[in-house]
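Checked the freezer inventory, then went back to the computational side. Two predictions to log before the end of the day. The first one is the construct we discussed on Monday; recording sequence and tokens without edits.
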Amino acid sequence: MVAFLDNGNNVIETKIMSEGSISQAMVYPREILKHAIACDCRAIILAHNHPGASTHFSPEDRALTQRIVDIFHPLEIKVLDHIVVGGTSYSSMAERGEIPQQCKSTANYEVIALGETAVEEDQNNFQFTCSF
């Protein structure tokens, strides 16, 4: 799920961007980008659940967050948080001070598989290079 926020960090809209299985979920960064641009947001908050009730961020969760930052940072859209819900608990990257603030690499718009296997998207690759 993604919450799209305005300049005052008020929620413009929330959208379920992916539905997954017990072991993985497919995340399409292009879809998140399309919705962000359509609602003219200035920030986003990512959130998803872990069916096994774990609130620990997986390496895939961390990679997803960095890739989303890489895509949105050049557009001056902030990634304020990535929240994982497990059972009745949650974990917040922002509360832990783990939200990446800068681009680390070229923005990659390919599909992201959270879980066991990666699947490639059948659309063109658009690349933006961070130059900050």
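The second is the one RB wanted added to the comparison set:
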Amino acid sequence: MAQHLPPQPHHSRMTDFAGHPLVVGVVPDQSPLVALTAVSLARATGAPAIYFAHVDTSRYADVERADGTVRHLSIDPDVDDEQWPEREAALLDLVGQWMSEEDVPWHFRYLAGRPDRALTHLARAVDAAAFVVGSHVRRHHRLRDFVNGSVSMQLSHRQHRPVIVVPVSVVDWEGRAPWE
């Protein structure tokens, strides 16, 4: 029996950078370097827009719409999560601060579920050329925990668009990296 392989990266599946938007992952307390990198790349490639997106992992996407937005619900049906609109507003305000003096059009999407799947859905919906995400900064004790928790690693292995990882925290050569 032949093993089923998903469609693999190929030049015919590549979305040209020129004239296509970027999808940028947003988390609370994120460094503005991620947004500034996306702005620089958008200007260099003529991207018509940047789509900033936060994925709420405490919720799931009930309906995924063609424009990349979602209707989402709490994972726990017994808990009515009434704080998500405040989280969305705070993140929208954060992105607005980053982009207040920039001339690149931008949009914000509040998504739900697994970050790699939600960001991929948005990228497909807007025909994005690439993702821009911040480097993984949480400390892990095992390489497996680091790799499994990394959105950039999940994206780079589960879809065909390039993933640009912006370093937001580095260690010197004598220091320990998050996976060490």
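For RB: The CA atoms of residues 135 and 168 lie 6 Å apart. Helices lie at 32-45, 84-99, 115-126, 143-149, 151-158. Let me know if you want it refolded.
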